[in-house]
Amino acid sequence: MIRKATLADHARIHAIRMGVREDVLSDPSLVTAEEVDWYREHAIFFVAEEAGEVVAFTCANHQSGLIWALFVDPAHERRGHGRALLDAALAELTAAGHAQAWLTTGSGTRAERFYRRHGWREMGRSIDGQIVFIRALAETDAN
User: Fold this and answer.
1) What is the domain extent for residue 72?
2) What CATH number has the domain bearing residue 92?
3) SS3 label, residue 66
4) What is the tens place of the pLDDT at every residue in 20-50?
5) How far apart (Å, rounded) are the C-alpha atoms in residues 63 and 41?
């Protein structure tokens, strides 16, 4: 089940973010509580539940078209949660009037392979070496 995130989900979302095996935050203070609260209160913030437990989440900025976060609890990977969350976020960005979405992710990661498999196109590298991907939102139903 995909639903909007609530304040009650905060601890579980934090646990998922800190428990990933790839894209581990080298400095957790880089993601502030204020930033997370802004996404939950003003932007696009969905969670995926399995058996009543939050197992994954995504955040997207409805103003810029950025997919800010997409993380799945390692114990619940490969069950379609990431794809379902990403599709929900892309639908919201489309509804907000965006023609494309963008994101960054590390090179050589499962995330990189996931995005390539789902129609994202590499546009170069960010200043910190992350891959910058874009995806035309009209393609979301085609893949």
Assistant:
1) 2-139
2) 3.40.630.30
3) strand
4) 777 766 666 777 788 888 888 999 999 999 9
5) 14
